[in-house]
Specification:
The structure holds 2 protein chains of 2 kinds.
Chain A lengths: L12 E4 L5 H7 L5 E5 L9 H12 L2 E4 L13 H14 L4 E4 L20 H18 L3 E4 L14 H12 L2 E5 H11 L3 H7 L5 E7 L2 E2 L4 E2 L8 H14 L3 E5 L7 H13 L10
Parallel strand pairs in A: 1-2, 1-10, 2-3, 3-4, 4-5, 5-6, 6-7, 7-10
Antiparallel strand pairs in A: 8-9
Helix pairs in contact in A: 4-5, 7-8
Chain B lengths: L34 H13 L5 H5 L2 H4 L8 H23 L1 H7 L1 H14 L14 H7 L5 H19 L8 H5 L17 E6 L3 H9 L12 E8 L2 E6 L2 H11 L4 H11 L5 H14 L5
Antiparallel strand pairs in B: 1-2, 2-3
Helix pairs in contact in B: 1-4, 4-5, 4-6, 5-6, 5-8, 7-8, 11-12
The chains are: A alpha/beta, B mainly alpha.
Bound molecules: fe (ii) ion.
The site of fe (ii) ion has 5 residues of chain A, from loops.
């Protein structure tokens, strides 16, 4: 079993905090180990979002997850964004913050999509340089998530796991290993998801995401609108067997069902950690 | 009012059955491009208007790997297809009334032409609609004056939603203000209180849209609105003309006594009981800063 290098504890099993569940949470204060928030929904707002966050952060650990860092962009780093992010880190006393290995736009424009990075030496050096600046500024480790991707660049030289491993070596960033994304990208590009999980730098994996997706036959879209599929549960079990207990959360972002349904999916993740005991007699 | 919520998922994106991008793609030897060029190229493919797509995708083979399962054009189409969904969804949340009035197709066309002129340049989608009302006013849309005013109301609602919370002057404090201090007294609005004047009953119309009452476009009729956020709930009320004038003077920084004198002069029917009732209401609503 590999322990993550910062000694971040296993926080257990959590879920994404979504507005449709606010009233359920405030009424029932359910047994959830933590909530993960999308930071952009709380940054720069002085209204209900931050009020809700303060209430929830009083009772639960809150993990910060972003979609707008654009770590791979060739535009200058957006320090206005980082300043707001740092405020939020202070507010919930976060020990790390996560975002994606991607870029969202250049030439001053934001597409608000998680666009794929070329897996080249040039790109690796570029992201490394930026990651160091960002981590110095934020004063907490940045934890990068493997995104779901739908294309590969003609000039790619590295596998995604080799790229991420090199990045962790160079910058000491953490990894958010999204097990569903490994599956989605492996399906879309024809690599082995098992090999990915076997080769990813275990000591850098801080936590896991799990979610559902939409399989359109020739490709999968990472829609987060359904239950986690069996193949992804199997990969998650592989992660547990290799890495041990790591903080795990379920993302359900579209067609969001009642709280209990998402919560049941969270609890299902816990069962993957138990050794299978066959009934005798 | 719906609350914007950014999430990290991809949009449910189904490729059309026929080849989505009828463009000829060069399949020659891959040319090396730097990271900046690669990003500029993909961004152009994802965001350019349809009439520039063929040109943008002409050298796909230089950039995108001949993949497994899907051809490079279809792969690009997945990203390109998600872009309008994101833009339309974002402005639909902020401008549900405009979206309802135009219907899905015309709204999407408007959003995409708007985004072409005013692309998002911020980390947040909250600012995407900032120029949308002005863009509508300059458009050739039928009934654009009404649509513009509706968009102004909706933009203000979206902005007030995110304004910082500052303490309100409580009703007792407002009632106990001694008349001798009125000459110098300035009552400041909270950032979550805004006044708007329209030539169409847009607030009433939006209320009907929100409640799925399927309203028809209204005829001209002036409407004066106070938007306020109370306990993180968005509310708005229609004000009488005189009350609106008085509040507008106060919100603009005029001192209380001269503002009251002005409104009484302009609207002689306004007497002490009316004024008292207004201030009582405004105190209860918590629209002034403490
Ligand atoms: Fe994820």
């Amino acid at each position: 079993m590999i322990v993550n290098k910062w000694g971040f504890p296993d926080l257990g099993f959590g879920m994404g905090l979504r507005t449709v569940h606010y009233s359920h949470i405030l009424e029932h204060w359910p047994q959830v180990d933590f909530f993960e928030i999308i930071v952009e929904n709380y940054m720069g707002s002085g209204g209900r979002p931050i009020y809700m966050l303060e209430q929830i952060a009083e009772r639960y650990p809150v993990l910060l997850h972003g979609v707008s860092l654009s770590v791979g962009s060739t535009d200058p780093i957006d320090f206005e964004y980082l300043k707001l992010l740092k405020n939020l880190i202070g507010l919930v006393k976060a020990r790390w913050v996560s975002d994606h290995l991607c870029w969202t736009g250049i030439l001053g424009r934001n597409t608000h999509d998680l666009l794929p990075m070329p897996l080249t030496q040039e790109s690796l050096e570029h992201v490394s340089r930026r990651l160091k600046v960002i981590q110095d500024y934020l004063e907490v480790p940045l934890v990068l998530e493997n995104p779901s991707t739908y294309l590969e660049w003609a000039q790619d030289q590295l596998t995604e796991w080799d790229y991420l491993n090199a990045l962790t070596q160079e910058t000491d960033c953490g990894l958010l290993l999204d097990v569903n994304n490994v599956y989605v990208s492996s399906y879309n590009h024809g690599f082995s998801a098992q090999e990915y999980i076997q080769k990813i730098s275990g000591e850098h994996v801080v936590y896991h995401h799990l979610s559902g997706h939409t399989n359109n036959g020739t490709y999968i879209v990472d829609t987060h609108d359904d239950h986690v599929i069996d193949e992804v549960w199997a990969l998650y079990t592989q992660c547990y067997q290799r890495l041990g207990a790591r903080t795990t959360m379920v993302e359900w972002d579209a067609e969001i069902p009642p709280f209990e349904v998402v919560h049941a999916e969270v609890l299902k993740a816990a069962t993957c950690r138990k050794p299978v005991v066959s009934k005798v007699g | 009012m719906a609350e914007r919520e950014v999430v990290s998922n991809a949009k449910g994106m189904v490729l059309p059955e026929r080849s989505p991008a009828p463009v000829r793609v060069s399949r020659q030897k891959v040319q090396a491009h730097g990271l900046r060029q690669q990003q500029a190229w993909l961004q152009q493919v994802v965001t350019c208007p349809p009439d520039r797509l063929e040109e943008a995708m002409a050298n796909t083979g230089d950039f995108i790997k001949e993949g497994y399962g899907l051809d490079p054009e279809s792969r690009l189409w997945i990203y390109r297809g998600m872009f309008p969904l994101r833009m339309v969804e974002s402005l639909q949340i902020d401008f549900p009334g405009v979206a309802y009035t135009l219907g899905p197709e015309a709204f999407e066309a408007l959003v995409m032409s708007y985004v072409e002129e005013h692309p998002s340049s911020s980390w947040t989608l909250n600012h995407l609609g900032l120029h949308f009302p002005a863009y509508i006013a300059r458009s050739s849309l039928r009934g654009r004056t009404f649509l513009h005013q509706l968009a102004v109301l909706e933009l203000n609602l979206a902005q007030v939603f995110d304004e910082p919370e500052v303490p309100a002057l409580n009703p007792e404090a407002l009632q106990s203000l001694a008349p001798e201090g009125w000459d110098e007294l300035v009552l400041q609005p909270r950032p979550t209180s805004r006044l708007l004047k329209f030539d169409y009953p847009v607030s009433h119309y939006l209320h009907q849209v929100d409640n799925e009452l399927e309203p028809r476009r209204p005829v001209r009729h002036p409407q004066r609105i106070l938007i306020m956020r109370q306990g993180y709930q968005m509310n708005r009320v229609v004000l009488p003309e005189a009350g609106f004038h008085l509040l507008r003077d106060l919100f603009s920084g005029k001192k209380l006594a001269p503002a009251v004198e002005r409104v009484v002069r302009k609207f002689p029917a306004v007497g002490a009981p009316e004024l008292q009732r207004w201030f009582h209401q405004w105190g209860d609503w918590g629209i002034f800063r403490a």
